[in-house]
Amino acid sequence: MSGSAATCSQTSPSRARAPPGLGSPPAIAPSPTAAASPAGAGRRERARCDRHGIAIREEPVERLVGRDGRLARITFASGPALRRAALFFATAQDQRSDLPRKLGCTFTPEGAVATSEHEVTSVPGVYVAGDASHREQKVVVAAAEGTQAAIKIHESLWSDDLRQRADRRRR
Asked: CB–CB of 6/56 below 8 Å?
């Protein structure tokens, strides 16, 4: 496994303790939406890490090493390895389909399809949910967004149908 991550590591054992059963404090990656820096950690996040005695490692991650199916350490492209029993991370969000752009959808500065309430896009009749939208990237959220979009689609179709029926009666 290779990649780049900002990893906060505990440098002062007196400040933070590992969760029960983990052996060492977990390594954490700052939010990917944080203010610009090579690793995405903003000034506020860096200051918060500093206050809690947490050092930020920005070297590319070379691999995760485990024993008996559990994380034991993080090996970086340079610098010392970091002993850890847990790792939390967030992945980047990239729109891989060109369909929304071809349909004329607008996008957020982060590259997601811009939506309003009920996952409505800037293009009439086009709705998005899940990884294509701008909200949390979790399966349960994607399912909820899909449900919201379905409700709005149903309302839209019902409204169109009622309008067409009313037009036919007027003729």
From this structure: yes
Other beta carbons within 10 Å of 70: 10
Ramachandran area for residue 49 (φ above 0: left; ψ -120 to 50: alpha; else beta): alpha
What is the distance between the alpha carbons of residues 32 and 90, in angstroms, rounded to a whole number? 7
Structure-model confidence comparison of residues 97 and 89, the more confident one? 97
Domain boundaries along the sequence of the chain: 3-88, 99-170
Comparing CA positions, the residue from 130, 128, 146 lying closest to residue 138 is: 130
The tens digit of pLDDT for each residue in 43-58 reads 888 888 888 888 788 8
Given the DSSP bridges, would you call strands 87-88 and 27-28 parallel, antiparallel or unpaired? parallel
Q: What is the pLDDT of residue 34?
A: 39
Q: For 64, phi and psi rounded to 5 degrees?
A: -105, 130
Question: Using CA atoms, how far apart are residues 29 and 38, in angstroms rounded to an integer?
Answer: 13
Q: What does the pLDDT average to over 87-113?
A: 82
Helix (H, G, I), strand (E, B) or coil at 73: strand
- Residue 113: DSSP 8-state: B
Taken in order 97, 102, 107, 109, is the CA torsion positive or negative?
A: positive
Fold topology of 99-170: FAD/NAD(P)-binding domain (3.50.50)
**pTM of the full structure:** 0.47
